[in-house]
Amino acid sequence: MKLTVKPLKQKDAGRGLAAIDRVSMRELDLENGDYIVIGGKGDSQAVARVWPGYPEDEGRGIVRIDGRLRQEADVGIDDSVSVEPADVKPANSVTVALPQNLRIRGDIGPLVRDKLSGQAVTGGQTVPFSLSFGPMASSGQSVPLKIANTNP
Amino acid sequence: MNVPQSVRGDGRLARRYDYEDESVLAVDFGTASADASVDLVDGTVIVVDGDDQHEFELPDGATDAHMFIRNGVLTIELEDTR
């Protein structure tokens, strides 16, 4: 189903939520909390959880997502995206790709695993991965972590 | 319907939306709370999230509401009592 992208209120941002107007939610047979896949430009995709639509959006075919999800789906405000219910399954393994120019010493596997644990991802998706952790977590930079493959 | 500070705290997001035919209260406990459950006992909403438990009252006059929690998102649907 095609929906129009609008911004999420600033205070609601950063949680991977997508506020979908109630008429569109009913048509897609979605409930709050369900996972959806948002298809943007090219192969870009974002995964989000459904949040109640804003009353003013009722029946207007609107999905409200924050800047991070817009970046993941490579779309802007007023762009059209496809929204489908996501079939989320626990993965046995996830293959990720980090930027080539990133020099890493040691094994960051456990760190990546911790970061992705409990998060829904899909092949082709790029998620920001914070390089710092512990007390420095909020101040650090993040690098794009590409989800190359998932099983299942 | 008011959500107590204890539920709003810890970076949770709580919002109330008033539609034409009903009001919806939504609280995001986050994806780490995917196994949380919700119950309604004598007008009190009880959310059990691992070792944490949160309780708050339905508004006066409301004795029943449709509620569910999915992937950490708690939804309470109240038919309009205005």
Give the SSE map.
The complex is a heterodimer of chains A (152) and B (82).
Chain A (H helix, E strand, L loop, with lengths): L1 E6 L9 E4 L1 H6 L7 E5 L5 E8 L9 E4 L1 H7 L6 E6 L7 E5 L11 H8 L9 E5 L11 E10 L1
Chain B lengths: L4 H4 L4 E6 L3 E7 L8 E5 L2 E6 L2 E6 L8 E5 L2 E7 L3
Antiparallel strand pairs in B: 1-2, 2-7, 3-4, 4-5, 6-7
Give a verbal description of the structure.
The complex is a heterodimer of chains A (152) and B (82). Chain A has 152 residues and is mainly beta. Helices cover 14% and strands 35% of the residues of chain A. Chain A contains three helices and nine strands, in the order ββαβββαββαββ. Chain A has helices spanning 22-27, 67-73, 109-116; strands spanning 2-7, 17-20, 35-39, 45-52, 62-65, 80-85, 93-97, 126-130, 142-151. The longest helix of chain A has 8 residues, at 109-116. Chain A is elongated, with a radius of gyration of 16 Å. The two termini of chain A are 25 Å apart. Chain B has one helix and seven strands. The longest helix of chain B has 4 residues, at 5-8. Chain B is globular. By secondary structure, chain B is mainly β. In chain B, a hairpin with a 2-residue loop joins β4 (44-49) and β5. Chain B has one helix at 5-8, and strands at residues 13-18, 22-28, 37-41, 44-49, 52-57, 66-70, 73-79. The chains are: A mainly beta (152), B mainly beta (82). The interface between A and B is medium-sized, with 22 and 20 residues.
In short:
With 152 residues, chain A is mainly β.
Overall 3D form of chain A: elongated
Q: Please report which band the strand proportion of chain B falls in: under 5%, 5-15%, 15-25%, 25-35%, 35-45% or over 45%.
A: over 45%
Radius of gyration of chain A (CA) equals 16 Å
Q: Mean of the pLDDT scores of chain A?
A: 88
Provide the β-strand percentage band of chain A: 25-35%
Structural class of chain B: mainly beta
Assign an overall shape of chain B: globular
Assembly state here? Answer: heterodimer
Q: What level of helicity do the residues of chain A show?
A: 10-25%
Strand-and-helix sequence of chain B, N→C?
A: HEEEEEEE
